[in-house]
Specification:
The structure is a homodimer of 573-residue chains. By secondary structure, chain A is of the alpha+beta class. Chain A contains 15 helices and 29 strands. The first copy, chain A, folds into 3 domains: 11-189 and 406-452, Bira Bifunctional Protein, Domain 2 (BirA Bifunctional Protein, domain 2, 2-Layer Sandwich), CATH 3.30.930; 253-380, YbaK protein; 471-572, Anticodon-binding domain (Rossmann fold). In chain A, α1 crosses α11 (443-454), α2 packs antiparallel against α6 (167-187) and α2 packs across α11. Chain A is globular, with a radius of gyration of 30 Å. Chains A and B meet through β1, β2, α2, β4 and α5 of A and β1, β2, α2, β4 and α5 of B.
């Protein structure tokens, strides 16, 4: 490809509002162009990367017996009513009417379409297990698209759906899919990725794993143990809390705290540390029962854990409705309705002489003692892990970091086959709903994640396996007839040899050429100039580490082919 | 691929309402499944065909320097307002609001997105010509989807857009694209296709060619000359009309025709032939001017031709509004408003003693003479070609047939670059809007067209180049241990040798296996059975012509590889 003809331009300026490296460089280097909020066009180099990623994914899906299909982007309301999702999903599901007034929607995932395809075409246990997958455009009406290709509204996604006759069979297949995902990320050149067991959220079902690129730029909070490898999404992470120090128990006394309501205000007023307090956070369940959570003042509620204990979705309560004194709620002599639930976090275990609300305006009490005043209480872990907590497995200090979700796999159970009425005949002659798994990976986000992980301060650094071109060929001084002749000859030879080469055939300065090549990020840069030609060599530089070698022109083709093959092997091994 | 695990079922019944062969067989053979009106899922075998077609198209687009990109399915109103199409396109453009109330739409073509991508990234004539293309899902809110994949609402389409500095350059490129299209159809195995110069309709612009699969099942009417190769879409076709016989001119006389209004009724009443009459058809222009078209009674108006002469879109007029006597309008003494336009078809030239309306209720006049009564009139061709008309080039009788549009290419001119404000610097330093071409081909329709052309009464017949699998392997009597052992061994060997094979591993009757293989349409069927094995051979049958050979098992792999390669070469040569 000649750079002079390549559609796309290189920009010096950081695009407005762009913070993530991948967002900045993909726009600056001419890979993507925004068409609307969270909606992008892919320019030719990005499309090349995307196709290479798709092919790697296809190979891995086919290896685990996946059958590629294509579901529609536009689906009718009826299909999604069968599963109940037409009503249960909020505004991120884009609904519209077609010209005849029929309710339609834009697919954000395709569980319903997958079951629709499998229904009646898979009739017997003998046809199972089977997995179907597609690579198709999806639309999710995100409220806050951000970060270029990281959080978009329209995206290309590989989604796969498997069907099984037993949980055991699903477990086996799930493991295979898990391994395939790890191979995919490795093969597209990611290094710093992990998987975490996660809450499966909107998708229903039980076991789920999220694959995460570990990066400070991520939206998801992660809890890692660098010693034993424990890793979890903050939503489900457990941490061993520091044990509370034994103290001599003192008498409870009421203390005036006036307008001091938050833990911060109370601690400031009483000149104590939050770890010497117990705070309350109040929620209501779906059927409006009160849920009170008590935690040591330096911990925050993990709402997922709390919801699980309360066996209901929860939202923050209006304390007035329950006659509670907001800001002065305490764990001694709290009066709550009979059907209320009160939970105590494990951070309170063994805590002595602490401050908590007096359950009346303007007052707290001090010298409360867990061993004396909460002795019949059951403690549960309902807190978010915090800095300083220790690994629940090995006891090492946990590391809190962030990640970008780059894929996820779920055990769906029979949620969709049951609701949609799909059954297959079992070996014993009975009819039964197959158990499903589903497996998603966004192509654009995977592409952006590679940029996010590998880019340096000069631009993108592509791994050889998915680089748009293997070689960026920069002949300097193309106005020199000798350079020009050799350059065009070399370009032709590289192409003929099957080397994917981007040829900077512009008559521009060396500075512009080299800067552009670093910005665009091909793994190998080949420079020739009157000077290198005088020595009969080309200057060959690896984008990743800047390592430069001078290679005799006569060996260039064979050397490049070896370098490319070696690099791909190194990544995929 | 083992047939027992393949998602999809073979059906005996013709699906409800299906008429086209492709519709019937694609459903019956388990290739597609309807999700909503005009919206289908592609099952694994169809997806395999689709990908092969896509790859052939990619190769041909890359050969003419196409750069693959990806535009979004969902686009904002603003982009389509720039070109004016947001308002000019009727209900087939699906419009909706996103969650923030913003007007969005589903792309049915991507001229706007292409110019949006090229704007600012193509700045100089030096970057031209260039062509960008994508293969992406489109949605067109068709009022009447029909025929399976032939006329759908959602479809995968390759659309390409080229940019040029001069008409000459566009002409050159257009010719290349034209040739590429011919290669594509040839390579996917079509034989009976033609291209016709067409009216470019909704797309604007000037020159356009439609590629048509010639088939009685088509929606488009075609006019062909089997002698000289003249071919045209009915909308623009010209035909030499039979010359009217010279007759002695007689005196005009009024004749009572009462309620006889249509040509059929009048001819029946007067016992004359429609070719001895002249009828009127009335239209109005966009600015409500009357347009009257006179034609010999056995011809019909070609509205495209008439609109071109009237220099306006036209629609059928309300004759009352113009004080015309519907059913009695005639070409003598017709009173029309001053700004009305009256056109006379060439079929009237030299017509003597004919009947036409008397321009008053209940009466016609007869013995009207073109040479006497219409002597100052200009005759234009405003008629649809009809059976019996002759080739405008060589004079041979024309053949009227039908076709399915399988692709089209357009010269767009500067319609989009002008309206959207895209300019590039020209060699003389001036700024100018590039001239565009666009080139579309629907993947699903191409797939269905191949089925439509090649299917026989047993099912689908795939060309080797796009068949889902090359070989359908049917071991009969898999309950026989010897057959089973040899079958699985052969299957493995075929796969290892890179032969794409669908292995019917089911323990079902020979009848079911052979019927299914004919329905599904792989080019080569390989049968083994206790009987063939006793002779050490396999029975190898070509789906297309039923030709059967018995090939020694020891030679089977090498023979199959040769057959496959030969067949592909034969199609692509």
């Amino acid at each position: 490809m000649k750079l002079s003809k390549l559609v796309g331009e290189r920009l010096k300026e950081v695009p407005n509002g762009a913070i993530l490296k991948s967002h900045i460089y993909l726009i600056r280097a001419g890979y993507i162009k925004q068409v609307s909020t969270g909606i992008f066009s892919m320019l030719p180099p990005a499309q090349r990367v995307s196709e290479k990623i798709q092919n790697i994914i296809r190979e891995e899906m086919n290896k685990i017996d996946g059958q590629e299909v294509l579901f529609p982007v536009v689906m009718p309301r009826e299909l999604w009513e069968m599963s109940g999702r037409y009503n249960s999903i909020q505004e991120e599901l884009l609904r519209f009417k077609d010209r005849s007034g029929h309710d339609m929607l834009l697919g954000m995932t395709h569980e319903e379409a997958a079951v629709h395809m499998a229904m009646n075409t898979i009739k017997s246990h003998e046809q199972l297990p089977c997995m179907i997958y597609q690579i198709q455009t999806k639309y999710r009406d995100e409220a806050r698209p951000r970060g270029g290709l990281i959080r978009v509204r329209e995206f290309l996604m590989k989604d796969a759906y498997s069907f099984h006759t037993s949980q055991e069979d699903l477990d086996n297949y799930y493991k295979k899919a898990y391994d395939a995902y790890n191979r995919i990320y490795k093969r597209i050149g990611l290094k710093n990725f992990i998987s975490v067991r996660s809450d499966s959220g909107i998708m229903g079902g039980k076991v789920a794993d999220e694959f995460m690129l570990v990066t400070d730029a991520g939206e998801d909070r992660l809890v890692l143990c660098d010693k034993c490898g424990y890793k979890a999404n903050m939503e489900v992470a457990e941490g061993k809390k520091e044990e509370n120090t034994l103290k001599e128990v003192q008498e409870i006394e009421e203390v005036f705290t006036g307008n001091a309501k938050t833990i911060e205000e109370v601690c400031h007023f009483l000149e104590i540390d939050p770890s010497n307090t117990v705070k309350a956070v109040c929620y209501v369940t779906e059927d409006d029962k009160l849920v009170v959570a008590f935690l040591r003042g330096d911990y925050d509620v993990n709402e997922k854990k709390l919801a699980k204990l309360a066996k209901s979705e929860i939202k923050v309560a209006d304390t007035d409705k329950f006659n509670l004194v907001a800001g002065n709620i305490g764990c001694v002599n709290l009066e709550v309705p009979e059907d209320a639930m009160v939970f105590y976090d494990t951070s309170i275990m063994g805590l002595e002489n602490f401050v908590t609300g007096a359950n009346k305006e303007d007052y707290h009490i001090r010298n409360v003692s867990a061993s004396r005043d909460l002795k019949d209480v059951t403690f549960n872990d309902i807190a978010l892990v915090k800095e300083g907590d220790r690994c629940p497995v090995c006891g090492e200090k946990l590391r809190l970091t962030r990640g970008i979700e780059i894929g996820n796999i779920f055990q769906l159970g029979t949620k969709y086959t049951k609701s949609m009425g799909m059954k297959v005949s079992m070996p014993d002659g009975s009819m039964s709903e197959p158990i499903m798994g589903c497996y998603g990976i966004g192509i654009g986000r995977a592409l952006a994640s590679v940029v996010e992980e590998k880019a340096d301060d000069k631009g993108i650094v592509w791994p050889m396996t998915i680089a748009p071109w293997h070689v960026h060929f920069c002949p300097l001084r193309l106005d020199d007839e000798n350079v020009e002749a050799v350059a065009y000859e070399l370009y032709k030879k590289m192409e003929d040899a099957g080397i994917e080469v981007l040829f900077d055939d512009r008559k521009v300065s060396a500075g512009v050429k080299l800067t552009d090549s670093e910005l665009m990020g091909m793994p190998i840069r080949v420079v020739i100039s009157p000077k290198t030609m005088a020595n009969g060599v080309a200057e060959v530089t690896m984008r990743e580490n800047g390592e430069t070698n001078f290679i005799p022109l006569s060996d260039l083709l064979s050397e490049l082919k070896i370098m490319i093959a070696d690099e791909i092997e190194e990544i995929e091994k």
